[in-house]
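Appendix B. Raw example, untouched.
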Amino acid sequence: MIKWGYRTMFVLALSCAAGGAFARGPWRANEGNTPGWPLMSPAERIEHQARVRGFRTHDDCLRHREDHLRLIALRARAAGREVAGGPDFCAHLQARTDQP
């Protein structure tokens, strides 16, 4: 028979309760959802993903997205390339915000 401690049971209960919030898994930056991905260094990609994961409000994420798009547009112009705006990588926060 397994003996469960109170702490273990508490952590297990918390994990189950939070399961709905993380059911989709963590957001991951990639070429398909981050405009200018090829113009970013590996370190910038990691930092970008961490920042977007850290946002708690859609508005904060959108401000970062605007800054990111400005930076990528500058890099693209300097490289003689064009970069489209791409999908809204903040959309995962909008869905979370809309839920009660």
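End of appendix B.
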